Every structure is written in C-alpha cells, then in structure tokens.
TrEMBL record:
Span of domain S-adenosylmethionine-dependent methyltransferase Rv2258c-like winged HTH: 32-103
Pfam families named in the record: Methyltransf_31 (PF13847), WHD_Rv2258c (PF21320)
GO MF annotation: an example: methyltransferase activity
InterPro entries, alphabetized: Methyltranfer_dom, SAM-binding_MTase, WHD_Rv2258c
Record domain Methyltransferase: where: 176-287
Keyword terms of this UniProt record: Methyltransferase, Transferase
Species the sequence originates in: Erythrobacter ani
Gene Ontology terms: biological process: methylation
Protein name stated in the entry: Class I SAM-dependent methyltransferase
Amino acid sequence: MCLAHSKVVDEFADQAELPPFAAGLVDTINKAATAMSLSIGHRLGLFDAMRSGDAKSPAGWANSLGLQERYVAEWLGAVTTAGITYVDDLGRYSLPADHALFLGADAPAGSMSSMMQWVGVLAPVETEIVRCFEKGGGVPYSAYPRFHEVMEEEGTLTFDADATLGLVTGLVERLEQGIDVLDVGCGRGRALRIFAERFPNSRFVGYDLSCDAIATAREKAADLPNLRFEVLDCMKMRDERAFDLVFTFDAIHDQPHPETLLGNIRRAMRDDAVYIAQDIWAHTDVAANRDHPLAPFIYTISLMHCMTVSLAQGGVGLGAAWGEEKASEMLAKAGFGDVAMHRLEHDIQNAYYVCRG
C-alpha cells in the first residue's frame, strides 16, 4: 500500500535534488495524512462497501451509504493518490481486491484500517502533551475521545481465543469443567464475552476503572449469567486466592504503579492458578528496538497515551516499550516463579507471558 506514491516522491526528490532524509520527510507527511483518510474510510464503512468490487462515481458511493458527495469525492482523491483505491477513465472508483483484504471493519485478513483510528484518538491531546513537556504531569484517560471503542476494535486484530488458551496445556479442559476467571483492565469486555459464551460452566469477572467502559461491557453481556463486570481501581484490588485464571490484555504498562498491580494479581491467584499477560512486545533498551517493525508507533502511542495517563495519576510512567527484559524482572519481583514469554504468529504487536506462582 502506498508504494506507488513513494516512487513518485522519489522521482520528485531526484528532480528537486532533495537529499534522502528530506525526501523521507515528504513521504512521511503523505503517509500521516493517508492514515487519517484510512481512519475516516474505516469509520464510515466506505471500505466495507467498496469490497463489493464495484466501480462507482463519488456520487454513487455517497448515495450507497447516505453520505455527502462532496466529502466522499475529496476522500476518494486522498486515498486514490495514495495508491489505495483506483480510478478508471470514466471517473469511477474501486478498491483492489488485494487491498480490500486488510481494510474495513469486516476485512477478511484482519482490519489494518482500524489501527489508523489512533491518529484521531491521540491528535486532540497534542497541546496538552506539549504542556507536559514543559510543566510535567500527564494527560488523563478522560481527555481521549473513543479510546475504549478503538481498543475494542484493535482486539479483533490481535486477540485469538484459541491461540491464547493454547499457550497452557489443559486450560481448555479446566474451563470446560468450570473455574473462576478474572480479566484485569477489561475495557468493554470483548475477550470475556467470547470466553463466557464458550465456557458456560466457568465464572468470569472483569474489572476496569472506566465507568463508561463497564457500562458498555454490561450491556453487551446482559444475556451471559456467568459473566459480571465491576468498576474498580485495580490498584486497590483486595481479592485473595479467588481465581484460577487471570488475564490482562495490554493493561499493565499504562498503570500508575504496575508493580503494585502485578502483586495484587499474584495474591488473587489460587495455588494452581495461571496468569496470562498480553502486552506490547519490545526490548527494554531503545537501541535494541531499532529493527522493530512497529517501534515508532509504539514509542509515539506511549508518549501520547500510555506513559502520560500513568503520570497523570501520580504514577511511574512505565510506558508501552517497557520490554520483555523489564517485564520478566517485574513479574519475578511480584512473586511469579515460573514465567514463559511467547509470541503468537498472528500478532506482530504483543508478547504473551504465561505466569505461575
């Protein structure tokens, strides 16, 4: 995607005698702008509609979705010049089948356009982040529009129930028999809904600090009697030996005091319990991340969200790129004597830590 446009930029740079670094900056601003257009197309269902393979004028696509033609026309200009959609000699626009695999909410190969929504989530707090550079402190969760909504969508790309449960031999059988399960920092509860539907003999609980996220989670799980959600500051968890299985999904690194939370999780586990932590995969040392395919994204989203929301609560600001080395150190300090880190083939973004007492 966008490779054709990069070639155009290279040709322009040669003609203008721009050095490679400056040419790269031109390409960067084009791709940043394209990310915004991808997010808009995702949210409006334009990519899902264009997956039909039809070729239509801007008016045709606008009418099919009840949108304003002028806006659709300008959006098509952005994504077409970026090499994402195609326009024929009759002014009809279409989405190539190989691009459609990755675009839209129902993308067959997984929605990569959903990730582009982070641009809109993070951009509104830029001025506040600049202030934090100068004055310190942080930006609270409440400042981010659509945060839990976008996190839930991202889960459709990274969360695979079978692959996650397959990390622990015999775990599926235990869930079928009936055990107590906790998801800490559950957000809107998508993972727990999947598990609760599949394993009706087990009992599931989700904790999250966000009242809005928990309200949505409860609404979506209203027909699941084995699943409940509670609004809770997980720094204040008081459960002791209450759970056989604990999950966190991308929920440790942005806590105000991650070591406290890990200790709370350890106390909440029974003797034969398992803790599975999905969290951002990286190395702790910046130099070791220079070849990481998502390193700029990880550090930027940490700067703009993960680190600063921790600091806003008087926390340590661990950050998303805490890394497998630091994670292993902190898990051991929390009392986990057996920790194994795994990567799953479908998930380029996360590591999976399987932890026992």
